[in-house]
User: Fold this.
Amino acid sequence: MPQQKTDYADDTEIDAELDKLPDDETVEEAVANLEERGFDVIVVDDADEALETVTSQIPAGVSVMNGHSTTLEEIGFDEFLSEGDHEWESLPDQIWGIDDDAERQAARRESQTADYFLGGINAVAQTGELVAADLSGSRIGAYPFAAGNVVIVTGINKIVPTLDDALDRLESVAYPLENERAQEAYGVESAIAKQLIYRRETEEGRTTVVLVREQLGY
Assistant:
């Protein structure tokens, strides 16, 4: 049975002040600032609408890769990519079908250049910056340049006032939850080893941020 957020979230201590749903004015300001920084932004009401919106962004015939994201799991994208009715090349299915460790790792690296790379983010500053981190970098490696197109899906609970708050959220909300998940799933601790501050998208139309008006991910 797939791991569920409830398997570990209830036993994890986080800073709840940095995981609240903001008011409409805050969301609107965040959207305006993200767009000013070159990101395309789509605001949706719930997880079902998020899945419909995300899948509509991806044309037939392209290669698709997803970084690990609780949010993508919650909206149903991971399952749709693996089992759904689409005409994409699913790179995760290919990667996890490789038995040789070295070959699989090489394929994971190559997947960073997918036509469409989807993932989450750990914090959104109201001022327009995005913050994320990984242990390996297998998710955030695609965001700045490698992937042809990037679609980032996030709950509005990740919107915080400033970049400093976003970095704080990474440490005091996202990391404790991911660390607990890693221990439950793999028996090892996680770490904020590789960190990204995504301040601006310089290529028009390349990166889309889907903001969901729900408490999603971490």
Q: What stands out?
A: The chain is about 35% helix and 20% strand. The mean pLDDT is 95. The longest helix spans residues 163-186. Strands lie at 40-44, 63-66, 89-90, 116-119, 123-125, 130-134, 149-155, 159-160, 194-198, 207-212.
